[in-house]
Amino acid sequence: MASWKSCFWTVFVLCLLGKISGLDNGLALTPPMGWLAWERFRCNTDCKNDPDNCISDRLFRTMTDILVNEGYAAVGYEYINVDDCWPERERDARGRLVPDRERFPYGMKSLSDYVHSKGLKFGIYEDYGNFTCAGYPGVVGHLAGDAATFAAWDVDYVKLDGCYALPADMDHGYPAFGRELNLTGRQMVYSCSWPVYQIYAGIQPNFTSIIEHCNLWRNFDDIQDSWASVESIIDYYGNHQDVIVPNAGPGHWNDPDMLIIGNFGLSYEQSKTQFAIWAILAAPLLMSVDLRTIRPEYKAILQNRKIIEVDQDPLGIQGRRIYKHRGIEIWSRPIVPIQGQHYSYAVAFLNRRTDGTPSDVAVTLRELGLNNPAGYRLEDLYEDVDYGVLSPQTKIKVKVNPSGVVILRADAQPSFAYNAIPSRTTYSPLNDIFRLTKK
């Protein structure tokens, strides 16, 4: 634990000194975690016929209560984020945004106060365009006024989309709105859609500027409620990792989009896969699910403390795909603790095959790049099994279900640790997902 804290404060101090380039608001030193309405509830504004599921004050207060009462806040989920479709179709006579008067009868300041009263933080959505994606007023022509409005509502997190905007204008528009947010004097996490719209338009994003002005940003398609959508995002991040990975770090994150675990489109194994890979990617963990009806096994995935700890690792190094062959992938992320020149690692074994039977993957720790002479303590983060300290020569064998994942944590040991372990590692019969043999 001492090593973890020491590393966290080292990263924190470097951020303050400006040696880790990023948006200078001191926020999002680890990927944001919370709940976001969009993927699950979309733009449902029919509160007359569907009062329980429409975008409304009632919905967000309910999710706030559940986040606190059912253990989500306790494991790190802290943002309640309103997405599109919250305002009136027209601004008021003074040009200010107005929450829909029927669906948000008490106003956004009241909702923000309620979220804060529960110890959580409040997020809101807008668009750098004439309109939002659903056709509500955008921020163009109102940058300073809208930033001031959000500050007056005590907003903690702003997501700025990019519909109805020219991608070429985003290089100055997104920084301009970010400056207006900072000028309010209120700290607000700034989530940008800047790169994805430029990529769609064939424009190479200026990631140096994006890192300077945004806390997180989207690179690829909106997630949909399907395994095919999750796979496409995993493929994009793997295929473009040489460009994407170097941009991530404390205060500035790549955002592969929301967690859809507990909805309709993913199996149990696929849900475990999304959560594990998002942790390897150092991704924001923004759930978009009906927390009132989520089944216990999916709730357990979202509340897995050990995988959340990987996602929230203070080094902020995004992981990479290090192996891909015949439907089997291995993803690896450096994490704390660090022993000398040796990182610890989270390693995910992903089975993309659909042939109906689990696949065995056997590899030595050394072949994974784990070369610490003192060895690594290995733990299966879903099965909650500790396999003790293993040498780099140890061959591990994992059994991975179709469209499933096995995620391991390998903590580098100090130089004295390996001398104290037995020469032979005992296999635990409690779980046959993971087997050990000596090479």
UniProtKB/TrEMBL annotation:
Cellular component GO terms held in the UniProt record = lysosome; membrane
Look up the EC number in the record and give it. 3.2.1.-
Gene name in the database record: LOC106120756
Location of the protein in the cell: Lysosome
Q: What is this protein called?
A: Alpha-galactosidase
- Signal peptide positions (record): 1-22
Task: Give the multimer and partner information.
Answer: Homodimer.
Q: Recorded GO terms, molecular function?
A: alpha-galactosidase activity
Keywords carried by this UniProt record: Disulfide bond, Glycoprotein, Glycosidase, Hydrolase, Lipid metabolism, Lysosome, Signal
One GO biological process from the UniProt record?
glycolipid catabolic process
PANTHER family, sorted: ALPHA-GALACTOSIDASE, ALPHA-GALACTOSIDASE/ALPHA-N-ACETYLGALACTOSAMINIDASE
Instruction: Identify the main location.
Output: other
Is Glycoprotein one of the keywords UniProt gives this record?
A: yes
Q: What class of enzyme is it?
A: hydrolase
Q: Which family does it belong to?
A: Belongs to the glycosyl hydrolase 27 family.
Name all Alpha galactosidase A C-terminal domain ranges: 316-404
Decide whether keyword Lipid metabolism is in the record: yes
